[in-house]
Amino acid sequence: MALTGEVQEVRDYLAINQALLDGLGLPADSLLQVETLGKGEHNENYVFGIPGGQRFVLRVNRVPQPFHDNQVAYEFAALKALEGSGCAPLPLYVDDSAAALGKGVLVESFCLGQELDFDNLGANDLQCAALLMANVHAVPVAQDCPLFRPADPLQQLFDECVDRFAAYRGTSLEDPRYTRWIERFFAATQAAMDAAPAAAEGGHIVNTETLASHFLLLPEGERNLPQGPVGTFVDWERPIIGEVAQDLAFFVAPSTTFWDSNYLFPRENIQAFLEEYWAAVDGRFDRGSFDARFQAWLAVSVLRSQTWFCKNAARYAQGGGHTVQRTFEKWDIYTSDEFNEMLLRECF
């Protein structure tokens, strides 16, 4: 069977990268099998290894995230910082040289499990996701941890949304109808932020993109609740040191759940899920100002989602670059009056 161009490119890269093979303990003459694993908005993922032997994940960065200029090195540092959690992939190799594929390559351990599926939730799937987040958030953060530590994470994310919207205004792609929705979200988010007290905690490693596809869950019969293991929390391309409320709000926001499914997290079920999370934390750190700031985080999570479409309007209108089919399929819904009316009603 003929290989796709991308898979062949990865095979060629592995074949000439002796440092990578040595780092993984693979013989120089290894006949490696390479398969596609998935493609996101920023990275392409492949699984590779000797047939019948250990497997690894290779991530090729295509579009860097904001606030750092070396995506793969940043993600490698995040995974190093999370090694003590026991529920994140292990960082094994990083290549940010000019010879690397794309804008850099990261190799990490291959993790077993099925992606969290909001359309087909099992009996304790959400409990497992809550435990994975709690275990990560409970990892002590070293003083010299190189991850981005914004002075005010909530304001920083709001300002990022402002920049996204500003880049959209006045362009040939601007839709006045959608602009009106974004302006309403900005006003409502600002009001929620004005009503929130200052953060009383903020020293946790947070993923910031708690999509369902980032939670790989073990089969129900192999899970050990309430302590774990239950699976792995993957995809650490945009972590910061900040507030745990950011991860929880993003996880339950309907603008998030709908990305990987047709599921909209019921407003009446959100508080029960938050209490499930705090039960998983089990006193490992204080609740702080979580409850008083959660609504502001929920609002800015929705604003972040909807201004993402402003930022990426040109990339998806022009095509030819790094794009994802799922985004094309969801675009018209996310920007529709019906969807935005629901967001305004349920989240503000």
The major sheet is characterized as: 5 strands, antiparallel
The Rg value, from CA coordinates, equals 20 Å
**Helix proportion:** 40-55%
Mean pLDDT: 92
Separate helix tally: 13
Q: Can you count the beta strands?
A: 10
Shape: globular
Spatial gap, N to C terminus = 52 Å
Strand sequence of the main sheet, in spatial order?
1-2-3-5-4
Spans of 5+ residues with little confidence (pLDDT < 50)?
A: none
The string of secondary-structure elements, in order, is HHEEEHEEEHHHEEEEHHHHHHH
How large is the share of residues in beta strands? 5-15%
The secondary structure category is: alpha+beta
List the SSEs and their pairings:
Blueprint: H1 5-16, H2 18-24, E1 33-39, E2 43-49, E3 55-61, H3 71-81, E4 91-95, E5 105-109, E6 114-115, H4 125-137, H5 153-168, H6 176-195, E7 204-206, E8 215-217, E9 231-233, E10 240-242, H7 244-252, H8 254-257, H9 267-281, H10 290-311, H11 313-318, H12 325-334, H13 337-347
Antiparallel strand pairs: 1-2, 2-3, 3-5, 4-5, 6-8, 7-10, 8-9
Helix pairs in contact: 4-9, 5-6, 5-10, 6-10, 6-13, 7-10
Report on this structure.
The protein has 348 residues and is an alpha+beta fold. The chain is 45% helix and 13% strand. The protein contains 13 helices and 10 strands. It has helices at 5-16, 18-24, 71-81, 125-137, 153-168, 176-195, 244-252, 254-257, 267-281, 290-311, 313-318, 325-334, 337-347; strands at 33-39, 43-49, 55-61, 91-95, 105-109, 114-115, 204-206, 215-217, 231-233, 240-242. The strands form 3 sheets. The protein has a 5-stranded antiparallel sheet, with helices on both faces. A 3-stranded antiparallel sheet has the order 6-8-9, covered by helices on one side. Strands 7-10 form a two-stranded antiparallel ribbon. Strand 2 and strand 3 (55-61) form a beta hairpin. The termini are far apart.
